[in-house]
Inverse folding.
């Protein structure tokens, strides 16, 4: 049996047994996002982007394809704060850009009213990016752009991460219009009074049409994010709640995909039992995908790795580069 474990940004706290797993692992920081890695793992093909918006919408709606007809193109849209540097703008991290539900609804109404003649439809999302407020953009045709996920652009010069491709000029113009709409808007006046960073743009990413996987992937999935629920549904599977014990994982016959979203879940999860199962040969391999400050650590642990007892245990955050935020 093989276990893939996704540890989301909000769940990352030091856990001594997880640190022991990392100490004996083969690991590296990768340039891909966890969402992109999960799409690939679950058999979803990349289009111009990984179609994260369309997959997440399926997971949110809990029905396969009913809200995602083939002819519609979907993008994730996040309210963001762009920071003026000396000669460019950088993207402020989404996790630090707190947006209330009332602000989201006001933004959606503003954008839909302004762009109604252009065929842009902004739609409410409970989790366009789980744990971080956002919404969806529905289009009737391919915008002919590729985008960058916000977690990969945070803190960087946005000029290198703006929409690219045949349709880029049009979409750069649309984003400029949005920035003008938001400049000195009542939403931002109130935010600044409350010492919050203003919302001065919208970040588009994860675009694509709904396409079924070419080949179904069979796994037992424990997850609650819209993306992983959507990936499960697309493969004819059901995403279940995180089990109370590692023993429940080890009782399964199929390979497992487990997503940990909350700090409490990672504090309570028994990584030590997984290490023991690996050492005894009851597990073939553990793959870890850990998000932290816009970075992704991918770690692999095999049975033979459990013999590397001389490896020094380090804090989890030491595997990542220091962030400026």
């Amino acid at each position: 049996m093989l276990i893939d474990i996704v540890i989301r940004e909000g769940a990352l706290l030091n856990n001594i047994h997880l640190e022991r797993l990392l100490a004996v692992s083969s690991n590296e920081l990768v340039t891909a996002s966890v969402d992109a890695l999960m799409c690939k793992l679950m058999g979803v093909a990349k289009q111009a982007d990984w179609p994260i918006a369309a997959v997440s919408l399926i997971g949110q709606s809990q029905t396969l394809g009913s809200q995602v007809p083939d002819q519609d193109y979907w993008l994730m849209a996040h309210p963001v704060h762009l920071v003026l540097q000396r000669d460019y703008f950088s993207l402020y991290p989404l996790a630090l850009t707190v947006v209330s539900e009332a602000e989201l609804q006001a933004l959606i109404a503003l954008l839909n009213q302004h762009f109604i003649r252009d065929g842009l439809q902004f739609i409410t999302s409970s989790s366009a990016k789980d744990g971080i407020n956002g919404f969806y953009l529905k289009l009737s045709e391919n915008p002919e752009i590729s985008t960058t996920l916000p977690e990969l652009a945070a803190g960087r010069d946005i000029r290198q991460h703006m929409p690219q491709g045949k349709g880029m000029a049009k979409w750069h113009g649309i984003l400029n219009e949005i920035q003008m709409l938001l400049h000195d808007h009542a939403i931002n006046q109130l935010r600044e009074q409350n010492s919050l960073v203003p919302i001065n743009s919208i970040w588009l990413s994860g675009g694509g049409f709904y396409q079924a996987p070419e080949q179904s992937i069979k796994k037992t999935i424990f997850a609650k994010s819209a993306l992983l629920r959507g990936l499960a549904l697309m493969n004819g599977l059901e995403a279940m709640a995180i089990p109370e014990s590692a023993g429940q994982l080890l009782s399964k016959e199929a390979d497992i995909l487990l997503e940990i979203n909350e700090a409490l879940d990672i504090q309570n999860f028994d990584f030590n039992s997984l290490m023991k199962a690996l050492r005894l040969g009851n597990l073939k391999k553990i793959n870890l995908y850990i998000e932290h400050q816009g970075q992704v650590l991918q770690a692999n642990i095999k049975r033979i790795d459990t013999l590397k007892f001389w490896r020094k245990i380090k804090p989890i955050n030491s595997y990542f580069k220091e962030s400026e935020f």
